[in-house]
Write a structure and sequence with these properties.
It is globular and about 40 Å long. With 173 residues, it is an alpha+beta fold. It has helices spanning 2-18, 34-37, 147-159; strands at residues 39-47, 55-64, 70-78, 83-93, 101-107, 110-119, 125-129, 136-140, 167-169.
């Protein structure tokens, strides 16, 4: 019985860890410079999911951990509960660090995909895909972004199969 439970836990871990991929038809940004990407980003839009439900004023802040992984601090204000929420995790490159394909974890050994699929040359605006068509974010270094860039990112996502009508457009104070 103990061997069966251990085997099931190992299989579950492998399945969750292997989910850290990129949606078919998309490629991550190449020539990626992590040092330029670090810092604070404002969430402009996202596909809603359990861990960000009812959040506005959402941000993500990236910095180096001492082990070379990336520290991820997500914050937002839950307008239903009237509370500030924070989640701390870590991200690791899935391979070559000059390719913006990472895996991120907020829950121990379980990782999900974090793929920068569009990024301007100045590292001011980003389109980030999860490991499936269920996760997508538009990020900006400021609380707003130019409409033409926003539309370019929406068009790119739609072309790849995302249902962009699912976007939650985040409010910032």
């Amino acid at each position: 019985m103990k061997k069966t439970i251990t085997a099931l836990l190992a299989l579950t871990t492998v399945l969750f860890v292997s989910c850290a991929g990129i949606p078919e038809g998309f490629t991550a940004v190449t020539g990626f410079e992590a040092e330029e990407y670090l810092g604070k980003w404002y969430e402009i839009a996202r596909f809603d999911f359990q861990f960000e439900k009812d959040l506005n004023n959402t941000t993500a802040e990236y910095s180096w951990n001492t082990d070379g992984s990336v520290r991820v601090v997500n914050r937002g204000f839950n307008y239903v509960k009237q509370t500030q929420e924070e989640a701390i995790g870590k991200a690791k490159f899935r391979g070559d660090p000059s390719i913006a394909e990472l895996k991120v974890s907020f829950f121990g050994p379980f990782y999900a995909g974090y793929n920068v699929i569009a990024l301007d040359e100045e590292y001011q605006y980003a389109l980030v895909a999860g490991d499936s068509l269920d996760y997508l974010w538009i990020l900006s270094r400021t609380k707003t972004m130019p409409e033409d860039i926003k539309q370019t990112y929406v068009d790119l996502a739609e072309k790849g199969g995302y249902d962009t009508s699912r976007f939650i457009w985040v409010e910032h104070d």
